[in-house]
Amino acid sequence: MKCFLLLACLAAANAKVYFEERFDSFDESKWVTPTAWKPEGDMGSFVHTAGEWFVDEDVNKGIQTSTDMKFHGISAKLDEAFSNKGKDLVVQFSVKHEKKDYAFCGGGYIKLMASDIDQDKFGGDTPYKVMFGPDLCGYDVSRIHAIFNYKGENLLKKD
User: Fold this and answer.
1) Looking at residue 101, what is its pLDDT?
2) CB-based contact 91:130 (threshold 8 Å)
């Protein structure tokens, strides 16, 4: 058992981080908000905040959609292209939905896309390789989407 734990720790120590954003501060120059996806009046904006529920307001910050009934999108590119062929890929993010009432419908997804996307046109129909995150609507729809694109077909992982 100790040998397994040691190997697991060594594997984690050798892992390469391709992208990390903790939102301790919100460097807007790193992120692109699309202007060619939807008309300006249909787009919402993001704010850097701890939200309504937090442990430490100065530490536990993220970006939050600030307008209801709007489209929201934001993207950032990796510093370098990579392939995980033959290697494990770990994607991790946190999302916190504070509004949960009968009228709320929305999702908080992370999408991994090819490096050639036009970030100015990034939106709901932009092709992706992986999409992951919660989908909520009212009190009766609460699910986690995990969708992989394989040869142009979106495959929803159901289990």
Assistant:
1) 67
2) yes
